[in-house]
Write a structure and sequence with these properties.
single chain, alpha+beta, seven-stranded mixed β-sheet, 9 helices, 24 strands
């Protein structure tokens, strides 16, 4: 048996052993607890310059044949001053024996670091750019090597289909003879998955001589046997439509929605945000032509001197055989109308209550067809010329595209709008599908609350009937009949509303998976324009 003193000595020895173990562990990992943890990928170069390598076979030479299992993807440049955007599909990183690519790691933060093929370990000092918005700048990229690479590669983005980044070596030219290696990695639990990328001078295109420092060079990806995905090289000053084609796969050539958005943005002539729903229909609005010149301009080829200015705004045109489609939901507006009198057939169902001002004319009024002005008579038809021998009220209208344009620069978009990053988005409240039901069941089980205008049977009349001929009608049944009748009507109305909503949704989303109702943000700058969109 141990004495009390002996037990104390045993416990003291255990405590000393634990403390010694912790000290040994801390000394062995003192380098790992500063900044971020050490990675089992890459290396830190002590020279302070960008690493270039002499490869046994130059990737840009005609003799080079890349094996299917090689993980590197090579990009060959023909000048040292490059300004290009590289778009690489996720499958471009896959090899015969590694069917894994960065797009499969969406949800993780990605980073790029300078990579040496001569060593295995890498520090966060080599990391020069990341897609994370929460990493502190002081926690990575403190080496001279990383600072230099940060000037060359910018704008890194990874989504479900591609990896995109911009190479700008105008401030720090690339090497004229040797290749450089970088890697894109996902910051995951355990060992980070990485994919290698090499930049090499295209000695074949330059006949084996040193590359020049001239600007305007190009980049050519080296093809790899087996599974190969097309890598796209884009000029940063390319048209907006080219950028949109690269980022979304949709072009205005095959998408009228995008064409209309681009036209609306260009018409504004300034930095702006353009919002438009899917498959929009033209809206009917009052024309700018006032009543004082309406008959004169529309009924004559050459208007009078007082109204001649309208001839340039609404020039004469030929009659259109196929009229444009427009929304039947016309808001009550201050329409300028004509009331064509006579013994002919009445056109539409427009009346004077929808007109701000009315001019009465007879059958001698035969309007000419003019650009951007139509006659609307209250139904689902538009006329550029009124049919012969017709009467009734018709309004002069124009058609506009339901698009919202808000002046907003790129800087304002990134600094003042609180929806740049998804984690700042606020959830929208759910919409109620059903409206309030006024009916209820009282304490004795009789339905109550049916509005009088929806009752099938009058309760007062049924009360007299039940008092005189109680075996014919029981008054309680009247309430039940009205309750059932009212709910059948509500069910019919809700069914119609439901199918109408389904029709609107499917008609907007069926042609493409892309043109769902969303807001397209069109932000322009002096050198180029870019489209940012929300699903």
């Amino acid at each position: 048996m141990l004495t009390t003193k002996g037990k104390r000595l045993v416990w003291l020895g255990i405590v000393i052993l634990i403390i010694a173990t912790m000290i040994i562990w801390l000394l062995g990992n003192k380098n790992n607890i500063s900044k971020k943890t050490k990675r089992v990928d890459g290396s830190l170069d002590g020279s302070g310059t960008i690493i270039y390598h002499n490869d046994p076979k130059h990737p840009c030479s005609t003799q080079y044949k890349q094996a299917e299992w090689e993980p590197q993807r090579w990009l060959c440049y023909n000048t040292t001053n490059i300004l290009k955007t590289v778009v690489m599909p996720g499958t471009a990183f896959e090899t015969k024996y590694r069917q894994q690519n960065p797009t499969q790691w969406i949800g993780y933060d990605f980073y790029l670091d300078a990579h040496s093929r001569n060593t295995r370990d890498s520090w966060w000092g080599d990391t020069f750019i990341t897609t994370s918005q929460t990493w502190k700048p002081s926690s990575y990229g403190w080496t001279q090597l990383a600072k230099q690479w940060k000037k060359i590669i910018t704008g890194v983005a990874v989504d479900n289909t591609k990896v995109q980044f911009t190479i700008n070596s105008t401030a720090m030219p690339l090497n004229k003879k040797k290749c450089a290696h970088i890697r894109i990695c996902a910051w995951a639990t355990g060992t980070d998955p990485c994919w290698e990328l090499g930049l090499c001078p295209n000695i074949t295109a330059n006949n084996g001589t040193e590359l020049s420092n001239k600007t305007g060079g190009t980049i050519k990806p080296v093809e790899r046997p087996g599974k190969n995905s097309k890598i796209q090289i884009i000029d940063p000053d390319s048209p907006v439509d080219d950028w949109f084609k690269i980022t979304t796969g949709v072009s205005r050539i095959d998408n009228n929605w995008l064409l209309m958005v681009e036209q609306a943005a260009k018409a504004s002539g300034a930095d702006c945000v353009v919002c438009m729903g899917a498959r929009p229909l033209l809206q009917v609005v009052p024309s700018a032509l006032g009543l004082d010149c309406l008959v004169d301009v529309m009924n004559k080829t050459i208007p009078s001197e007082n109204c001649s200015s309208w001839d340039k705004i609404y020039p004469l045109t030929t009659a259109e055989k196929q009229k444009p489609l427009f929304s039947k939901k016309v808001a009550v507006g201050n329409f300028t109308c004509i009331n064509r009198t006579g013994a002919g057939v009445r056109l539409g169902k427009l009346n004077d209550t929808q007109c701000y001002s009315v001019e009465t004319v007879n059958m001698a009024f035969k309007p000419k067809a003019r650009s951007d002005i139509w006659w609307w008579c209250g139904d689902d038809r538009l006329f550029d010329r009124l049919p012969y021998n017709t009467t009734g009220f018709c309004a002069s209208v124009s058609l506009i595209l339901p698009v919202s344009i808000t002046p907003l620069t790129v800087t304002d978009l990134l600094t003042t709008v609180n929806v740049v990053y998804p984690h700042t988005w606020k959830s929208r409240p759910k919409r109620s599908v059903m409206t309030g039901d006024p009916t209820y069941i009282d304490s004795i089980g009789i339905p109550r609350g049916v509005p009088d205008e929806y009752k099938l049977i009058n309760q007062v009349a049924a009360g007299f009937e039940s008092s005189l001929c109680w075996w014919c009608t029981i008054n309680k049944n009247v309430d039940r009949i009205n309750y059932i009748h009212y709910n059948v009507q509500r069910l019919g109305n809700k069914t119609e509303e439901g199918f109408s909503a389904i029709h609107e949704q499917l008609s907007a989303t069926s042609p493409y998976g892309f043109p769902k109702p969303y807001c397209c943000r069109y932000a322009s700058s002096r050198k180029r324009r870019s489209l940012l969109y929300f699903w």
